[in-house]
Amino acid sequence: MFGEYDVRGRMGEEITENNFFLLGKALNRIGYKELVIGRDYRKNSLELAEALAEGFGDDVLNIGVVPTPVVAFFSENGGVQITASHNPPEYNGAKIFKKRTLIGKNEMDKIRKEFEKIKKEKQNTKKRNVFKENNEIVKNYLEKLPEIENGIFDLGGGAACSIKEIFPKTIFATPDSEFAHHSPEPKEGTLNKLEEIAKKEKEVGWAFDGDADRAVAVVDGKVIRGDILGAFFAANELKDGSRIVVSVDCSEEVIDYLKRRFTIFYSKIGTPNITKKSFEKNAAFSMEFSGHYTYYRWLPYSDPIFISAKLSKYGAKEFGAFVKKFKNTMVYYTIPTRINIKKIKEKLEKKGFEISTLDGIKATKEDVSTLVRHSNTQPITRIQIEGKNKNELMSLKKLLDKY
User: Fold this and answer.
1) Does pTM top 0.85 for this prediction?
2) Is 148:308 a contact under the CB 8 Å cutoff?
């Protein structure tokens, strides 16, 4: 159930109450002083939270159902959000925080090793009789948020429904553990209702993923690409010269735009990688193509609720005009196996592409580029191709498809 920087799996298989009891014990033994525990609306999230708390011990603050950034906000000494993020409803898991940000691979390895030690001791869960909630501190987070002025917010039945009162207009604001209205992963093809309403009312639409630590925006009936939305925030909310960390899958066209006003640093994909690089470079802001946005003066973790609040003063016309600045075509798809990236690198080098190996391979040549990388969480290969000329783009795709 242990990934590089979260815990996730199918409920009843990898994810069980007993395993979460052991996870709580592991966190206690490796030195977590206290735990702030939150959860989403998935079935079994409460039971998993109870088991985790019982394993950890007394220094637990249960803040109930909240978006993941709320747990991060209060997790200086330690925090866990029970969630499977954007995965289907049969999944569950946990995101673990320390110093108000998501832990990385090294910390997860320590937890996993301690978990395996405890597992050999054959300890079982003891069910808590009372698991009291105290969500009073959540008001502290809400009071510090900027006022949300405009916009239509698709809460998708997810964790954002727990704070629905802060949004001016909402759809799908009733908690739904089955995500019946649409996938908990907000993306093009899943947000038809939001696209329809936002276009009709000429407003900006916002949609959060299942645990509300990622967001997309919709303008004129279309989802704005993640890197373009991040660039909009930077262009309108950051001072010239600010340092920005971007994931390697952000488009060259967007990066070129940002370089005119800001100092840009590249990072491997994945929130802990982005955060580590941001701390190293003293960045003001970081952005990921997937919809994670972090403004470090607020919180060293992705909080799209804060980002959408800051941007709620801008209208659909301003967003629409900004999107039109970017002309490149982008194609992204997955291959259900881990293909031989080394062979692709050798082939592209022979064809004169400039190669970066920060995360997989990023190959650039004149007006076309590609990113080929293995997924951090699944046995698949992700491919992204960008180009000004569609013929060149499709030619590169044919070459990559041979491998």
Assistant:
1) yes
2) yes
Q: Please tell me whether residue 190 adopts helix, strand or coil conformation.
A: coil
The CATH number that applies at residue 245 is: 3.40.120.10
Q: 385 lies in a domain?
A: yes
DSSP assignment of 174-229, as one string? Answer: S--TT--SS-SS--TTS-HHHHHHHHHHT--EEEE-TTSS-EEEEETTEEPPHHHH
Give tens-digit pLDDT for 203-253: 999 999 999 999 999 999 999 999 999 999 999 999 999 999 999 999 999
Q: Whose CA is closest to 226, among 205, 201, 203, 254?
A: 254
Regarding whether 336 and 311 lie in a shared domain, the answer is no
For residue 30, the tally of other CB atoms under 10 A from its CB is 13
Count, residues in the chain = 403
CB 44 within 8 A of CB 90: no
- 282 shares its domain with 223: yes
Residues 216 and 292 in one domain: yes
Q: What is the DSSP letter of 364?
A: E
From 56, 63, 15, 57, select the one nearest 37 (Cα to Cα).
63
Which pair of tokens denotes residue 219?
């303008």
Is there a single domain that holds both residue 252 and residue 358? Answer: no
φ/ψ of 30, rounded to 5, equals: -90, 5
Helix (H) or strand (E) holding 230: helix 226-237
Judge whether 363 and 383 are in contact, CB under 8 Å: no
Would you say the C-alpha torsion 166, 167, 168, 170 has a positive or negative sign?
A: negative
The residue from 323, 344, 367 where one domain ends is: 323
295 Cα distance to chain centroid: 14
Number of domains in the chain: 3
Sheet with 152-154, side-by-side order of all strands: 170-171, 152-154, 205-208, 215-219, 222-223
Q: List the domain range (segments joined by +) for residue 379.
A: 329-401
